[in-house]
């Protein structure tokens, strides 16, 4: 899941988060048991239709978040081109894009509070074992919240580089991006410590 909740309201926003997560898990497991390129292609087309139904703004935002997959797609494509397993490579790529796109669709149509509630419900059995489930809930919330923030900051660094150089940024922004990520992590840690850490977090 690589995005925040979309501001574009859809019918799926009103569906229970638990049902959407369960459907996502079942569908993803099913995808990995299917080897047909045609079926994967049809499923990806179906997911893209789901993105298009709420309108152009929702569709373009969803596709923009999926652009993060291009390095993985490139690596898989090059490897299977080298091994001359073109059809297998296409199947893996389409399966990857479809699974991530579906997960991203769930995130875009699920409020963060609803997602945390679903995780809280699923983690209830672990409470009886004395485990701190609030730390798990907070970790998932932070991952969902911080991923698009870091992506946006990475894009800003890339744009800043392009404004100052004719060369592509590439690996050159890795160090400043790492510094930005560590700085954000430090601020989040300080905010948590100021509120008593994960042990003192109360459920809203």
Protein described:
By secondary structure, the protein is an all-alpha fold. Helices cover 72% and strands 0% of the residues. The protein is built from nine helices and no strands. It has helices spanning 17-31, 37-52, 56-66, 70-82, 86-108, 112-122, 124-127, 133-164, 174-194. α1 (17-31) runs antiparallel to α5 (86-108) and α4 (70-82) runs antiparallel to α5. The longest helix has 32 residues, at 133-164. It is globular and about 55 Å long. The two termini are 24 Å apart.
**Helical proportion?**
over 70%
User: What would the average pLDDT be, to the nearest integer?
Assistant: 82
Strand pairing plus helix content: what structural class?
mainly alpha
Largest sheet properties = none
% residues in beta strands: under 5%
User: Which residue ranges are poorly predicted, with pLDDT under 50 across at least 5 consecutive positions?
Assistant: none
CA-CA gap between termini: 24 Å
**Continuous helix count:** 9
Topology:
Blueprint: H1 17-31, H2 37-52, H3 56-66, H4 70-82, H5 86-108, H6 112-122, H7 124-127, H8 133-164, H9 174-194
């Amino acid at each position: 899941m690589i995005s925040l909740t979309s501001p574009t309201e859809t019918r799926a926003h009103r569906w229970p988060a638990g049902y959407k997560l369960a459907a996502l898990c079942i569908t993803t497991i099913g995808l990995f048991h299917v080897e047909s390129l045609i079926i994967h292609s049809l499923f990806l087309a179906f997911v893209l239709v789901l993105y298009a139904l709420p309108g152009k703004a929702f569709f373009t935002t969803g596709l923009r978040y999926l652009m993060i997959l291009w390095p993985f797609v490139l690596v898989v494509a090059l490897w299977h081109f080298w091994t001359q397993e073109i059809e297998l490579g296409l199947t893996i790529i389409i399966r990857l894009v479809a699974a991530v796109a579906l997960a991203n669709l769930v995130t875009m149509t699920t409020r963060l509070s609803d997602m945390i509630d679903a995780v809280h419900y699923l983690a209830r059995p672990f409470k009886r074992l004395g485990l701190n489930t609030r730390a798990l809930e907070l970790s998932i919330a932070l991952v969902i919240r911080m991923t698009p923030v870091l992506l946006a900051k990475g894009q800003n660094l890339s744009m800043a580089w392009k404004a100052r150089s004719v060369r592509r940024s590439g690996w050159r922004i890795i160090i400043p991006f790492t510094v930005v990520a560590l700085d954000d992590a430090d601020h989040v840690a300080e905010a948590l410590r100021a509120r008593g850490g994960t042990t003192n977090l109360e459920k809203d």
